[in-house]
Amino acid sequence: MINQIARRLRMATSPRTVSLMERAPQFIIYALHGPYCLYLALRYRGLTLPTVANPGLEGSGLTNESKTELFDLMGPVGREHLAPYVTVTAGPGVMDQARRAMAETGLKFPVVAKPDIGRRGFGVKLVRDEDALAQHLGRFGAGVRMMIQRYAEGPGEVAVFYLRMPSEPRGRILALTIKHFPEVTGDGIATLRELIQREPRAHVFAKIYFKRNQRHLERVLAAGERFCLVTVGNHVRGAAFEDGSQHITPAMNEIFDTIVREVPGFYIGRFDVRYTTLDALKRGEGFTIVEYNGAGGEPTHIWDPRTSIAKTYAGLLEHWKYLYMVGAENRAHGARPMRLRMLLRRFFDELKLLRKYPDEE
Asked: What is the C-alpha to C-alpha distance for residues 172 and 170, in angstroms, rounded to an integer?
């Protein structure tokens, strides 16, 4: 028994499977944010400077951020790479709205249905038919704005973290995260539940995978059959992240800088992108933008299991340093930071929404 516990602990903390920070509670992950932001506020003389890091977005995109409003700001190059979408309002008649909107735009299944305001994968679901879409939309309260977006098959997904200082003519990609969607392979004997418990990384996230695949847990997978455990590219949903910053190229920088500079008042944020091949992405081709975030879109390469605790904290705090630096420059050019009371109100409004969303894929 002791040997089994020791083995599980070794597996759970192995740099090849999952890092301690990936599984740490939120209050530990963000423990240093308060003191560090207070230091930055004193240094740059403004507590809410991050709210003007992206003056073209309300509140800079820190919180309560609308996906459709961000998409509406994109220019012609950005729209060429954007996955098509429609929006509907949850409540009575939502499926009538969805059918009409999808027919008008030629949007076909599979699609991803997700709330217009949200984060960390809450309420996001890949749906493959009308019945599944109706069931998912029915889980949301009346009045919640929902996005139905074409599922970009990929097969790969990356997160692109971008920065441009207002005083600079061009920006750059600071980090690139390659997202992996864990899967297990059947042997014709074991159930999905057993396969998850056997796999070194999957067993650490077993509670998440059990919840997301509860209808299939007792199913025996055929020999060689592969089963994807998660389709949402978020590490708190069980996706695995790899630091792929070595793959950043001048061509990739060029295309994303062009896309960002088309968005008025946008200087720092993260793009979630599906790509056909990594080589094509490195050439600045063959990719589809499924989402992008403003100041609230932290860099995700730090969740690579090989990243040390110290470097993870450093990456999280560096993000806030950039927000204050960019905000200070924009303030010098006339941007007015949001009042703290308004920022807190937006934050708590978003929390209320998230609590109402279904926490399942």
From this structure: 7
Task: Give me the residue label for tokens 């949200």.
Answer: 118
Burial letters 128-137, b for 16+ CB under 10 A, else e:
eeeebbeebb
Place of tokens 């009409």: 100
Q: What are phi and psi of 244, to 5 degrees?
A: -110, 25
Q: Which element (helix H / strand E) includes 43? A: helix 33-44
State pLDDT tens for residues 177-215: 999 888 999 999 999 999 999 988 888 889 888 988 888
Is there a contact between 48 and 42 (Cβ–Cβ < 8 Å)?
no
If one counts every other C-beta atom within 10 angstroms of the C-beta of residue 165, the result is 16
Q: Determine contact, residues 326/53, Cβ cutoff 8 Å.
A: yes
Distance CA 47, CA 44 (A): 8
N- to C-terminal Cα separation, the chain: 34
Q: How far apart are CA 308 and CA 306, in angstroms?
A: 6
d(CA 262, CA 250): 18
**Cα 225 from Cα 222, distance rounded (Å):** 5
> Which domains does the chain carry?
26-83+153-181+230-333 (3.30.470), 84-151 (3.30.1490.20)
pLDDT band per the 50, 70, 90 thresholds, residue 361: low
